[in-house]
Design brief:
The protein is 12% helix and 29% strand. It is of the alpha+beta class. The strands form 4 sheets. Strands 13-21-11-12-18-16-17-15-14 form a 9-stranded antiparallel β-sheet. A hairpin with a 3-residue loop joins strand 5 and strand 6.
Length: 359
């Protein structure tokens, strides 16, 4: 079956015919939009089938009927257009003539796959599910035909819809339309074009459970680290994380993505990578912000710490990239929380990090 989609332009030409690897689908829902791109080589028949259903408007007015918070959401059942058929949700749209196209595509966050009836690998049809977290147990068991490339946070929000005892959504999150079109060129990531000096014109406001902490930066000493931190903050990677380590008199530490509630936006994933150390002679004194890392010197990823007092043992070992200019009283309140070992007994939320321009 062909996976080619003809885009109607004013003057059709060979380049106007794009295969499915060159298009994306923007799924508009009552909870926001997300975009998917296709695994055209690995699942050509499923992709062509999905595209055909989209062109027919098949999914318009259907809902995400089954959700597991921060796990998966499932949609595409034609019965969900009718609220009176709620008792049948999850049973429609199967057995539409698709044979399985199982592959070794890993079921990671954002994977879109065809739903099957239990024990019936040839029962795929219109229903699909989206993984919000990694689901390795599904690899090779379901046909992965697409992936979310933008708006995974929207899908994660849908997963929090209230459900009944059968995980059927109690509130309607409808697909209002799906639009097919060429994959747009990737936008430049935040803090790509700024010079090192211009990085210093920005600060970050950490909105925490105990108040705001304002951090300004040292781009002269650690330009790559400052750029990395500002980029991740702008992309929302640090939102909904927590201070996971409190060592009184030493440091408080945050930014570990294992503390994050929910997925961060998929367009941030390429930038959640280790960065090179940038050691300097700036001393680790109270208020200094430095990158945490593992044993390898160039293994800093997202985690950072704020120093509570003079700590010369850290000098020239960790990358100093900023300092707290407002909110040291908040830092001290965090440092005073009850801990078990160095782990806070109660979660200390970092609700958001807001990047502000100072000049």
């Amino acid at each position: 079956m062909s996976v080619f989609l003809t885009l109607l332009l004013l003057s059709p030409a060979p380049q106007d015919i794009l295969d499915a690897s060159e298009i994306q689908a923007v799924v508009a829902t009552t909870a926001g939009d997300f975009a998917i791109q296709f695994y055209a080589d690995e699942a050509p028949n499923h992709v062509a089938h999905f595209i055909r259903l989209v062109e027919e408007g098949y999914y318009d007015g259907t809902t995400f009927h089954s959700v597991f918070e921060h796990g998966i959401v499932q949609g595409g059942d034609p019965y969900t257009r009718d609220p009176e058929r709620r008792g049948e949700y999850g049973t429609g749209g199967f057995n539409l003539g698709l044979e399985p196209e199982f592959s070794d595509i890993e079921f990671t966050a954002g994977t879109v796959a065809a739903t099957l009836l239990p024990g019936l690998p040839s029962s795929a049809g219109a229903q699909f599910f989206v993984c919000i977290g990694d689901q390795p147990q599904f690899t090779g068991q379901y046909t992965a035909f697409a992936r979310v490339v933008d708006g995974l946070d929207v899908v994660d929000g849908i997963s929090s819809t209230p459900v009944d005892e059968g995980n059927i959504a109690l509130e309607r999150v409808e697909i209002t339309g799906i639009t097919l079109g060429p994959i747009p060129p990737p936008p430049a990531p935040p803090f790509t074009t700024e010079t090192d000096a211009e990085l210093g014109d920005h600060r970050v406001v950490m909105e925490t459970a105990f108040g705001d902490i304002v951090v300004e930066f040292f781009p002269d000493a650690a330009p790559g680290t400052v750029r990395h931190f500002l980029r991740l903050a702008t992309l929302g990677v640090y939102d909904n994380t927590a201070f996971h380590r409190v060592a009184p008199g030493f440091v408080i530490q945050g930014g570990d993505l294992n503390t994050r509630t929910g997925a961060y936006a998929s367009d941030a994933a390429p930038w959640v990578v280790p960065i090179a150390a940038e050691l300097s002679d700036i001393p680790h004194v109270a208020g200094i912000v430095s990158m945490a890392r593992g044993e390898e010197i160039d293994s800093a990823l997202t985690s950072f710490f704020i120093v509570l007092g003079d700590q010369p043992v850290l000098d020239n070992v960790y990358t100093v990239f900023g300092r707290v200019t407002e909110g040291m009283d908040v830092v001290e309140r965090v440092a005073a929380v009850e801990t078990r070992g160095e782990t806070p007994v109660e979660r200390v939320d970092v609700y958001a990090m807001r990047v502000e321009r100072m000049n």
